[in-house]
Amino acid sequence: MKRERKASELGRREFLRTLGVGTAAAAASTPLVGGPAAADTESNDEKRKARYQPKSANVQTFYRVNRYPVK
């Protein structure tokens, strides 16, 4: 026997359907956050240059902190 629903009752399927439609509508109305993609600003020579500097302070600190004790 089917139970009659009141106007204020909302079934699980109707709730999920409404939730899905609302989410899709919100996603469609939201503009892109990042905007249009920008081209690379570096030339090929700049992309290939060496960036690792072993004598820099942050590299020295990394190796000092992560040293293993000598056995």
Task: Write structural notes for this entry.
The protein has helices spanning 12-29, 44-48, 57-65. By secondary structure, it is mostly helical. The model has no long low-confidence stretch (mean pLDDT 78).
Q: What's the main sheet like?
A: none
What order do the helices and strands follow? HHH
**In angstroms, what separates the terminal alpha carbons?**
79 Å
Shape: elongated
**Low-confidence runs of at least 5 consecutive residues:** none
What is the CA-atom radius of gyration, in angstroms?
Answer: 29 Å
**Whole-number mean pLDDT:** 78
- Number of extended strands: 0
Q: Summarize the amount of helix as a percent range.
A: 40-55%
Beta-strand content estimate: under 5%
Backbone structural class:
mainly alpha
Number of helices: 3
Write the layout of secondary structure elements.
Blueprint: H1 12-29, H2 44-48, H3 57-65
What labels describe this entry?
mainly alpha; about 70 residues
Summary, kept brief:
This protein is mainly alpha-helical. The chain is 45% helix and 0% strand.
